[in-house]
């Protein structure tokens, strides 16, 4: 039995709330159970210097965790002078995931930065961030279309992410902290609405996992992402 009493293929309660940041061009407060992440998309009229003259835009992300997002206060990374390796890895993952479903030529030499701030962490912060960031990015593009900055939505597809793992020898979907901290295997899957795999991150904490176990996790992830994409569609409808 899972600590949360969920079925192996059952997501935590997921909510996507749009328009929560008044000044951002697009925003979404995403909740995966007790994990809550505020995603805000900001339009910048100038793109990165290395893309100047290419006619190509850029989508990137920044990720941070509030000091009391966890059980004990964590020091703000700004005070240490640079983001941690984990933070850099996560924000690059979010950026890659979003760019995988965006036509970067469709909005000119501009940049959109999606800030993902973890308000409360209970496992799966990066997967929640990717799922909510897509909604914020969609609303940013809608804002641009409403002002005739662009004529079409550059988003080519949905993208969402979910964690899976092997907990007490059982493949399970959407690990919370109680499971994540003791799971034998932990994996994150980023998958598009059409089923394309953007990225897989998988780690065995103890014994290596088999190909059969990996495929069982992939099946769970596909089902979970299908649910998340359905929620994204309902949210922006």
From TrEMBL:
Binding site for phosphate: 86, 124-126
Domain Exoribonuclease phosphorolytic: 10-140, 159-222
Enzyme class: transferase
Coiled coil: none
Family classification: Belongs to the RNase PH family.
Function: Phosphorolytic 3'-5' exoribonuclease that plays an important role in tRNA 3'-end maturation. Removes nucleotide residues following the 3'-CCA terminus of tRNAs; can also add nucleotides to the ends of RNA molecules by using nucleoside diphosphates as substrates, but this may not be physiologically important. Probably plays a role in initiation of 16S rRNA degradation (leading to ribosome degradation) during starvation.
The name this protein goes by in its record: Ribonuclease PH
Organism, scientific name: Saliniramus fredricksonii
Organism taxonomic ancestry: Bacteria, Pseudomonadati, Pseudomonadota, Alphaproteobacteria, Hyphomicrobiales
Originating gene: rph
């Amino acid at each position: 039995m899972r600590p949360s009493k969920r079925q192996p293929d059952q997501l935590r309660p997921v909510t996507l709330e749009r328009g929560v940041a008044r000044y951002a061009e697009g925003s979404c407060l995403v909740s995966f159970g007790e994990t809550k992440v505020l995603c805000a998309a900001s339009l910048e009229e100038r793109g990165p210097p290395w893309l100047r003259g290419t006619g190509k835009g850029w989508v990137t992300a920044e990720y941070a965790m509030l000091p009391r997002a966890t059980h004990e206060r964590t020091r703000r990374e700004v005070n240490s002078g640079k983001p941690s390796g984990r933070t850099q890895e996560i924000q690059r993952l979010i950026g890659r995931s979003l760019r995988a479903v965006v036509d970067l030529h469709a909005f000119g030499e501009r940049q959109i930065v999606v800030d993902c701030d973890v308000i409360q962490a209970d496992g799966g912060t990066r997967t929640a961030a990717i799922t909510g960031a897509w909604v914020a990015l969609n609303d940013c593009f809608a804002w641009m279309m409403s002002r005739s900055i662009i004529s079409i939505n550059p988003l080519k597809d949905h993208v969402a992410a979910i964690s899976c793992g092997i907990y007490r020898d059982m493949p399970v979907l959407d690990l919370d902290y109680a499971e994540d901290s003791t799971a034998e295997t932990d994996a994150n899957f980023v998958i598009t609405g059409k089923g394309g795999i953007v990225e897989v991150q998988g780690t065995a904490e103890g014994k290596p996992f088999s190909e059969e176990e990996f495929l069982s996790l992939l099946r769970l992830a596909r089902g979970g992402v299908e649910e998340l994409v359905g929620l994204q569609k309902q949210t922006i409808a």
